[in-house]
Amino acid sequence: MRFTSQNIGMLLAKLLLVVNQAVAADTVGYLNDVQPILAEHCFQCHGPDEAARQAELRLDVRDAAIAPLPSEAIAVTPGAPAESELMRRIASMDDDTVMPPPHFAKPLSADQRETLRKWIESGAEYQQHWGFRPPRRVALDKKVNPIDELISQRLSQDGLQLSPRAAPEILCRRIHLDLIGLPPSPAEVERFVDAARDNFVSAIDGEVQRLFASPHYGEKWARHWLDVARYSDSNGYEKDLPRDQWAWRDWVIQAINDDMPYDRFIIEQLAGDLLPGATQDQVIATGFLRNNMLNEEGAIVPEQFRMDGMFDRLDCIGKAMLGLTLQCAQCHSHKYDPIPQDEYYGIMAMLNNADDAKTHVYSVDQLQTIREVGEKLKQIRESIKTARPHWQAELQSWVEKQVENTIRWEILDTYEATWVGGSNHPEKLADRSIVVLGHPSAAGDMYIRAEHDLDGVTGLRLEALTHGDLPFGGPGRGMDRGTFALSELTVQIKTPDNDAWVDTPLKNATADFSSPDQLLSTLPLAHVPEENKQKLGPVAYLIDGDINTAWYSDRGPGRRNTDSVAVMQFVEPLRCPAGTHIQIRFAQHHNRNTQPDALKQGVLIIGRFRVAVTRSSAPVAPPYEHAVSVAINTPLNRRTEQQDTAIFDTWVRHTPELKGHHDKIEKTWSKYPDNPKTSVLSLSKREQNVRRKTYLLDRGVWDQPKYEVRPKFLSVLHINDPSDEPDRLQLARWLVDARSPLAARVQVNRVWQALFGMGLVETSEDFGTRAAQSEYLPLLDSLAVEFMEHNWSQQWLLSKIVSSKVYQQSSQVGSALLNQDPQNRRLARGPRFRVEAEIVRDLALSAAGLLHTEVGGPSFFPPVPESVINYNFTVPKYWEPAPAPTRYRRSLYMFRKRTMPDPVMSTFDAPSGDTSCARRTRSNTPLGALTTLNEPIFIEAARGLALRVLAEGGDTEQTRIDYLFRLCTSRSATVEEQEELLRLLVDQRQRLAEGWLSINEIATGNADQIPELPEATTPQDFAAWVIASRVVLNLDATLSKN
Amino acid sequence: MTQLQSQHERFCRQVTRRWFLRDCGVGLAGMALGSLLERDVMASASTQHLFAPKAPHFSPRAKRVVYLFHAGAPSQLELFDPKPQLTKHDGQLPPAELLEGYRSAFIDPNSELLGARFSFAPQGASGIELSELIPQVSSIADDLCFIRSLHTEAVNHAPAQIMMNTGSQQFGRPSFGSWTLYGLGSESANLPGFVVLTSARGTSGGASNYSSGFLPSSLTGTPFRGSGDPILYLSNPPGFDDQLQRESLSALRRLNLMEHASCGDPEIMSRIHSYESAYRLQMAAPELMALETESRATLNLYGVTDVNQSNYARNCLLARRLLERGVRFVQLFHEAWDQHGNLTKDIQKNCEDTDRASAALVQDLKQRGMLEDTLVIWGGEFGRTPMVQGNPGTTDGRDHHNRCYTMWLAGGGVKSGHVHGETDDLGFNIARDPVHVHDLNATLLHLLGIDHTKLTYRFQGRDFRLTDVHGNVVHEILS
Questions:
Q1: Dihedral pair phi/psi, residue A191, rounded to 5°
Q2: By the CB < 8 Å criterion, does B261 face chain A?
Q3: CA nearest A580: which of A507, A463, A491, A462?
């Protein structure tokens, strides 16, 4: 052997391992040997959770373990097992003193006791849990792939070695399935095999680069992220209404196709909206946290389920980014990992001040138009300023005049806000406004009550207010535009000497804005009977005594989601004694979709409002936007730019000489797009005046606050330099900080898991103290460090893995290796396992030539048996199975309804999306067999496959069988396989010919339908090939990634 | 035959005996669960007991369960819990002190009391008072054990239903049926171990009511459908007759064996087995579903008039047939009881739909000698308020009430002709022997021979239980 540097390196490394092993034989290591015992048997009562701690003994921290206890005993006396209470107690034969106590039902074995004894004898050294230490790179020869180096080293210790390289056609299929989730075509396989013959390394590299460039790469890897992100197309819970969230799914696909660095990928999803100059895409990205379920059941208290959503978000962050079981600290401090309960709520505090927003998503062209509208408006304003050099003074004097005319309003402090019937529980906010979230009531009555000095009151003001939790900001709850329609407003008062509420009539309603008169049936989403003549429009409708007319204030695209105000006068100023109560009733009966399956599309109720009274004579609404009223009463130095602009535009409108300019402004606004592409659930920063405090919740119960918790990070992980009030953006940055011990490891491990079927750390959602330390931790750590050094590039990581000998191994296994390593943990052979649910279907469609490869867009409805549809609480009448070719889109785009898991997907273990799933199970069941044998799409695939074989598979039975195999498994059929399939074909042709089987039924599904076939193909032959194709589609070799 | 092949043949033979658990666990990849299941598999890989039904912790009183889940929350005040004082105070407001800290769902708690519009009378030797609405269940009162003191935290349907079925209001936990299958395995060679039957409409809790949560997905309840294929995709595609199916599967089997011979992956043997099991299921299902072979007397007992019409009665009969054929856990869902209004009228209809068949199932199991080791459970997700919702007399209804409700049990080790627990005079609070959902589930597992504190599954570093960290066995109801 020549001593190259590589050889020397390997020798040294081996030597080191041998030395380490020799040491290990005699002593015990804390991390490998001791901590697992303590974590399993002791920490529950003697660990990080101070509330559960017994006898004031803490064993997860050395200083505490070796300190004298209140009983004066010392649990662990380093070097002296005989003087350690721990040893005495674990060896005790007495039920009252033995540890763990018998009722705990987790006794220690003799070996475990001996391990603890040796550990104490050798000094009871602790080591920080591996998962909490930053990953370190193992120094290796740069020229060698560390994957091969580290795994070969480990294998050689067990007398194992890497398996030979898989056949090129198998490898080609493996790479295609792993990178794009679709099998290669026979032509692609041939090309790869040829290229590999010339230069294997460059063939692999070329294939990998080609697949990275395919849009299908993002589709395949998005699905893995969608699992952890608990993506779904419906809200869950009882109603389980559909939601539009596909824009977020498409964002993920695009980000992965762009190879967005993983740290940025996370930051944008957690806090894209908080980035400077956030783009629409960055707002869409925040849909990630919004993927939690949403309860819209009648009579719920929204806050209860908002908190459930928050718990779910923390669980998701724990699984997706931290690799920690964060959820365990919701009810008490974590029992095994050093995560105190108040740090759990410290993390929540950084997330708790986001609104659950619903945002329009515009097309690229529409965004351009919106930009142009903005620029044009700016130009017009500049031209006004140029034309009127003294505009500032003029404007100022106009503003002053308005301020003088401002009416003084007294805001009612309501003590009750009731939705008649109880479907909703309106909530009062700190600014005395009332917000109505929760059940999407399509119609109903609501009243508020207050006690107020009403003597001399002349009028009433209703403010309809925007709120970040309302669709598009509200102020209404209309699902498409956030508008509202108020049918009727009435007032009653009750004097102390009277038990009854007395009607108090109103007159002269004015508003800052009313829409023109129109029929309810003309609104978008409207679906009412023809005889419905309910109207919308002027504010007078609010008090006209007609329940069929409603005040409506839709200012049009770009301007509609703003406050609205209506002012009404009492017919007579009120004369009433102190202690009089006032009740304001709101009738909301403008339901624009009265169909039984309206899916709440009819909702137009108000989302947030506030009522005030005044004593000014003959009060009317100012002749301009409520927002302008607010702006002019805001001190100059505190006005926002937006407020300045609003005042400016209003001054223009009120300056007769500027009518031309005003018309131009209006004309420009009219160009604002009014048909956004879709919408998305996203996050937005909560307004300062409605910011929430975060409390530690007793036992994690939503309405049991104990004390306020400030935002904070997990102290066991890397430190950060937080501000006093770290926000969501800082949390995002902390999660993927280069100093994080977990961020890169978790992601690298997840990628590894997708390729090999199991992560290097098997518990991909848990890297805490209960997670078994991977034998390949040095490999995981090296890859994690390099992953960060390579700008968190997933494509870099995949290239590295795919180009390794480990990845390229054949998956063939002999009995010796199978016995030694049945689950392939050591990786002495290539991965072989059934592909994920989505790929089971995509693969069949792709082989059949049916796959419709359109990328992105709304989810489609796959065919689902009627009996499944009928199992829903709210039967989804909208479920119209898509026709071809949409029907044959990738499974990624199937509509995922939470309470009705797709029967095909769930049979093959796709998660429901109820909670974050970091790791799918992989079942192999008779139900799965029935699905691929009999489900309609798979039968359609068998027919498509037969057609393709007949058209493209040459002229002989042999070439056709071979082609069938190559379409499904990427390899040729063996002689035996040829014979087997030929026998099937011959036998079934015979039965078809003799009329035992219906040719038409097999060929088309319908006995009366003759198949359309290319010339020279007989229906009988086609039917025989459908039979053969169905068998080959169900081969284990087809269903498995090999 | 090589040693490897013979090992796999043996492996296959072992697993052949048990239909469902085997298939979930046999997949070697599927075993990568870091779980008890995995450890069991790995520990016993060389024994003959692979995937055999697991031994319970102690001698079980019940070997199988039929859970009649009446979703929507049936009114205990109309059916099971007579309250003469409530009737007496009908139309009056409830005492103010009762309402302190009380949370209802829809109504203002300060609404008039509503007495039941139906009469109650003592039944059988036990003298248990039951409503005229349920004459058939009343006729077997001496076989039943009523718990009138159930309570739960949840007050909305979906969370309350998954609380009952998974022991948690948070989604993602395994259902009772999945836990049972996980703990005891399956007895049936051809049928799934956990079958779900649905009548009326879909449930608020949806598929989460019978989901396996974080347990292996094959422990999920298998819905038998009321129309079309009883099990999805059970029928061959159009034109494929039995012979063609058999010959196709035989070819598939031989092709898979070739693949196995060349690559050695034991998962292929599992796949072969899954396909053969699927075929057996196809063969077994028609016999199972042939309800017309039942005697006229049996059909009458259940009130099944048309064996092809899917409804609660047919599901009860089908449940018995499933249990007879070794299915461990059958759960019926009948979502129909959410009577916020029209209570008086609608609950009569519900009882017409369900009373006869519920009683028939118990009687039928009894006369076949199956009741003693079959646990029958009847109940919903919470109770209903003593206060009215809507207008008394016209649109009377009752709101959700989580403070107390009634369920009944029968068979498998529970006392018969027994009432446990008591509510106060107005049926507002529990007066004696409260039984929380966790206590109920602990008791049900106990009857199955399982210590609820020991049936655990390691997930996210924590040993999860059906009963979380709660639950006390209600020994008073054990026979």
A1: -60, -40
A2: no
A3: A491
Inter-chain residue contact B248 with A422, CB threshold 8 Å: no
Collapsing DSSP to helix, strand or coil, A415 comes out as strand
- C-alpha A362/C-alpha B175 separation (Å) is 42
Are the beta carbons of A308 and A697 closer than 8 angstroms?
Answer: no
Distances (CA, A) of B360 to A152, A248, B299, B355, B365: 67, 52, 10, 9, 8
Rounded (10°) angle between helices B242-263 and A1019-1033: 50
Residue B56: pLDDT band by 50, 70, 90 thresholds? confident
pLDDT of residue B44: 29
Mean pLDDT in residue range B214-234: 91
Torsion region of A516: left, alpha or beta (phi above 0 gives left; psi -120 to 50 gives alpha): beta
State both tokens at A726.
Answer: 């770290």
Alpha-carbon distance of A837 to A907, in angstroms, equals 8
Query: What is residue A997's DSSP assignment?
Result: S
| pLDDT < 50: residue spans in chain A | 1-25
CA–CA dist B432, B363 (Å, integer): 30
Among A1, A824, A557, smallest CA distance to B31 is for A824
Distance from CA of A821 to the nearest CA of B (A): 11
Q: What is the chain A residue with the closest CA to B190? A: A926
Q: Would an 8 Å CB–CB cutoff place B223 in contact with chain A?
A: yes
Query: Phi/psi at A502 (nearest 5 deg)?
Result: -110, 130
CA distances from A865 to A49, B194, B229 (A): 50, 21, 9
pLDDT tops 60 at residue B33 = no
User: Is B127 near chain A, with CB under 8 Å?
Assistant: no
CB contact under 8 A, A325 and B462: yes
pLDDT digits (tens, 9 = 90+) for A637-652: 999 999 999 999 999 9
Say whether residue A1008 is in contact with chain B using an 8 A CB cutoff: no
What residues 409-428 of chain A have any CB closer than 8 A to a CB of chain B?
A: 418, 421-423
The torsion angles phi and psi of A651, rounded to 5 degrees, stand at -60, -40
Neighbours of A70 (CB within 10 A): 8
Which residue is listed with tokens 């939790």? Answer: A469
Checking if the pLDDT of B23 tops 60, the result is no
CA angle A264, A177, A838 (to 5 degrees): 80
Closest CA to B102 of B113, B110, B90: B110
10 Å Cβ neighbour count for A643? 17
The answer to whether A699 contacts chain B (CB < 8 Å) is no
| Residue A939 sits at the chain B interface (C-beta within 8 Å) | yes
The structure tokens listed for A734 are: 């902390």
- Sole residue written with tokens 């904070």: A712
CB–CB of A865 and B228 under 8 A? yes
A867, A915, A1003 ranked by CB distance to B228: nearest: A867
More confident call, B26 vs A677: A677
Give the residue from B91, B96, B98, B97 showing the smallest Cα distance to B112.
Answer: B91
Q: Which of residues 232-261 of A touch B (CB under 8 A)?
A: 236-238, 240
Query: What chain A residue is nearest to B391 in terms of C-alpha separation?
Result: A421
Do the Cβ atoms of A899 and B206 come within 8 Å?
A: yes
pLDDT computed for residue A880 by the predictor = 96
Which chain A residues in 337-366 lie under 8 Å from chain B, judged by CB atoms?
337
Angle at A796 between CA A793 and CA A799, to 5 degrees: 150
For B425-466, what is each residue's pLDDT tens digit?
A: 999 999 999 999 999 999 999 999 999 999 999 887 888 999
Q: Return all residues near A238 (Cβ < 8 A) that are at least 6 apart.
A: A295, A296, A297, A873, A874, B156, B157, B158, B204, B205, B206
8 Å CB contact between A183 and A823: no
Chain A contact present for B33, CB below 8 A: yes
Distance from CA of B373 to the nearest CA of A (A): 28
